[in-house]
């Protein structure tokens, strides 16, 4: 049989799979994947490492060594062109002697945008652009959000019955969805930089807000609590050592007394108006977060929807009914007319055991 030559799209899809490994681990950097290929043989592969460095290209070049000369580099995001804690990846690819670069999407960061591609082209390297561009953009939408909108990408996650209820009138909610859906929810936690709830959720449920998938226990997101009047107790589960080493960010008012939380691994974001979620979103962006999973209750969900800050919806639905006395997934949006309702476009649907997961993106 003649040898099978893989297409640029196939190699890039593999690189995107590598990039995904960095999600939730590399903020404020993007999650990038890189594969070095010659004669349909993989010489080196890499993805952005925890903390944002080393970069994917550095990892792949280190693996390939001198064999990278004449190779094709498949990179999911334009190689960086500025010197930070490491030299520019575009320069490193030139030094390594690659012959061709296939890039999924340009970097919107003004320090890079077009410059990395220019360095490669100036060195005589053939550059192919926009290979699986949409997939690469979707993967790093959080990073793009941070650069362009100066805030993280917010994903609202809900788990409800078919009639949109998250609990009985008495608060009983264990469990609306089944084990497979709950496990997928924990995987979502592992792929986000932060997880956000309101103080009422902490008081009512006392959650740890960690990722409890075996093997991914170290990939806990930064936990964020909205608590204007600082009603949190230092004895809450999120402050326990079992909850992991990631810090807890508490958003509260400027004059709040915080001395009772000494030793609790907590950082306070104190703002003039904690109910101004646009201000909160910008503060989280300044903290370097690129993606935040909203798991708060109905009022937090309604507040983010009303502030037009929800970029994506993940709706887990169980084949159950509770009725009109149950607690709704979304609080009051104070709508005056139907055209004012937040509008989202469906992107995917999948079955998880006996439950369904539908995903939506904000229609802009």
Could you explain how this protein is built, in words?
This protein has 364 residues and is of the alpha/beta class. It has helices at residues 8-20, 56-64, 89-96, 115-122, 133-139, 141-149, 179-190, 199-205, 277-286, 298-306, and strands at residues 33-38, 41-47, 72-75, 100-103, 126-129, 153-161, 165-167, 194-198, 222-226, 248-253, 266-271, 291-294, 312-318, 327-328, 344-352, 355-362. A 9-stranded mixed beta sheet has the order 11-10-9-8-12-6-13-16-15, with helices on both faces. A hairpin with a 2-residue loop joins strand 1 and strand 2. The protein starts with 7 loop residues before the first helix and ends with a strand. The mean pLDDT is 92.
What structural class do the secondary elements suggest? alpha/beta
Gyration radius from CA atoms, angstroms: 22 Å
The pLDDT mean sits at 92
Sheet-strand content, in percent, reads 15-25%
Give the SSE order as H and E letters: HEEHEHEHEHHEEHEHEEEHEHEEEE
Number of strands: 16
Shape: globular
**What spatial order of strands do you see in the largest sheet?**
11-10-9-8-12-6-13-16-15
User: Low-confidence runs (pLDDT<50, min 5 residues)?
Assistant: none
Helix content: 25-40%
Main sheet, how many strands, which sense, barrel?
9 strands, mixed
Give the N-to-C terminal Cα separation: 50 Å
Count every helix, treating DSSP H or I runs of 4 or more residues as helices: 10
């Amino acid at each position: 049989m003649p040898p099978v030559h893989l297409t640029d799209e196939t190699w890039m899809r593999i690189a995107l799979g590598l990039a995904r490994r960095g999600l939730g681990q590399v903020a404020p950097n993007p999650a990038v994947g890189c594969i070095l290929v010659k004669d349909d043989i993989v010489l080196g592969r890499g993805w952005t490492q925890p903390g944002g460095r080393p970069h994917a290209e550095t990892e792949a070049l280190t693996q390939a060594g001198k064999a990278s000369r004449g190779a094709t580099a498949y990179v999911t995001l334009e190689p960086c062109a500025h010197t930070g804690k490491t030299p520019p990846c575009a320069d490193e690819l030139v030094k390594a002697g690659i012959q061709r670069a296939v890039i999924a999407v340009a970097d919107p960061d003004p320090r890079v945008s077009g410059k990395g591609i220019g360095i490669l082209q100036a060195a005589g390297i053939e550059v192919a652009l926009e290979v699986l561009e949409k997939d690469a953009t979707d993967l790093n939408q959080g990073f793009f959000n941070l650069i362009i909108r100066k805030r993280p990408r917010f994903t609202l996650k809900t788990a409800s019955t078919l009639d949109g209820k998250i609990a009985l009138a008495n608060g009983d909610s264990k469990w609306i969805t089944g084990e497979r859906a709950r496990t997928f929810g924990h995987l979502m936690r592992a792929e986000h930089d932060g997880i956000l709830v309101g103080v009422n959720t902490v008081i009512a449920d006392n959650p740890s807000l960690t990722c409890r998938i075996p093997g991914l226990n170290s990939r806990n997101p930064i936990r964020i609590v909205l608590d204007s009047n600082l009603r949190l107790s230092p004895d809450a589960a999120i402050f326990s050592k079992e909850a992991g080493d990631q810090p807890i960010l508490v958003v509260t008012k400027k004059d709040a007394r915080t001395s009772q939380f000494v030793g609790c691994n907590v950082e306070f974001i104190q703002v003039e108006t904690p109910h101004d979620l646009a201000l909160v979103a910008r503060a989280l962006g300044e903290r370097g977060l690129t993606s935040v999973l909203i798991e708060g209750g109905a009022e937090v969900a309604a507040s983010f929807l009303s502030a037009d800050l929800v970029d994506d919806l993940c709706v887990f639905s169980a084949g159950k009914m509770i009725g009109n006395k149950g607690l709704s997934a979304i609080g009051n949006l104070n709508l005056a007319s139907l055209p004012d309702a937040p509008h989202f476009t469906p992107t995917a649907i999948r079955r998880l055991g006996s439950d369904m997961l539908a995903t939506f993106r904000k229609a802009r």
